[in-house]
Amino acid sequence: MSRAGWCASPGPVEIVDLAAPSRLAYTWAYPAEPESVVTWELEGSRGRTRVTITHTGFGDREVGDYEAGWTSFLVTIRNQVEARG
Question: Is the pTM of this model over 0.85?
């Protein structure tokens, strides 16, 4: 895979950990900032799937934009799941 990533920046760049079907971690690039790491973990829970998303590697950087972006993304996912309910 190219270091240019699989989508336009900002976004995922390179898979750094894959333990299918329960774990995926990849680097995340945002212009003018060092790469961070996003990890998705899936776990069965009473017939449902629990999703844990962890975004690390910010150092001393402000993370407000990331928080707003992830909140928006998660609301979109929730709405899609509930619409299919």
Answer: no
